Amino acid sequence: MAKYTAASVETSLPKAQAGFKERAIAVKAAHNSTKQTIKADPMTSDLAKRDKLEALTNDTRSQLDAIKAEQLSYEASLRSSLESQLRGNQPADANSVLLRRDAADRVRRIQDKQEAQDVLNDALANGDESMAHAIGTRARNSAWLDVADVYQAAYPDTADTASALSFVEANTSGGAYNLSNSATYSSPLD
């Protein structure tokens, strides 16, 4: 598994997203060109033109769906790789798995960032890495920035990966992202 840095992700993600968008634009341009050719053909009946246009629309829709699925797969894979990199190599023995699961279960019951801060401080003071990692993950997912900063200060090797993961999450979710994808992968206008 390649090690990602914030700088590499900040360069590669927008470039990949732009590539997917360019491919979708090319599919739409080809659709429009073919549509004009079909409509302009004087040797084809209106019924045949309608059938050809319907087949063209279906083909274009499937191509756009395939590109969108490829983009979503790329983004999910990148996010998954960064999350694995953030967690690091974790022992797979039964006791370690049980400790991580119990820590995650306990952290899910934390209601606010002050409680999370207190539990993180206790975990760091007692050397409980499983609990600290669980709280760090919850803090990042819940936007408890103060708690996430304390976690990153305690585990500085995770700071760059957390920054990269934050960049991915910010650029693969939200209203602007959804609007952009809707426009990019919408069917061409007739």
Helix content range: over 70%
Unreliable segments of 5+ consecutive residues? none
Structural class: mainly alpha
Order of helices and strands: HHHHHHHH
Number of helical runs?
8
* Strand element count: 0
Mean pLDDT: 90
Radius of gyration from CA coordinates? 24 Å
Distance, first to last CA: 45 Å
- Biggest β-sheet strands, sense, barrel: none
Q: What is the overall silhouette?
A: elongated
How much of the polypeptide forms β-strand, as a percent range?
Answer: under 5%
What's the topology here?
Elements lengths: L5 H35 L5 H42 L6 H15 L4 H14 L2 H14 L2 H10 L4 H13 L3 H10 L6
Task: Give structural attributes.
190 residues; single chain; mainly alpha; 81% helix
Question: Your description of this structure?
Answer:
By secondary structure, the chain is an all-alpha fold. 81% of the residues lie in helices and 0% in strands. The protein has helices at residues 6-40, 46-87, 94-108, 113-126, 129-142, 145-154, 159-171, 175-184. α1 (6-40) runs parallel beside α7 (159-171), α4 packs antiparallel against α5 and α5 runs antiparallel to α6 (145-154).
In short:
The chain has 190 residues and is mostly helical. 81% of the residues lie in helices and 0% in strands.
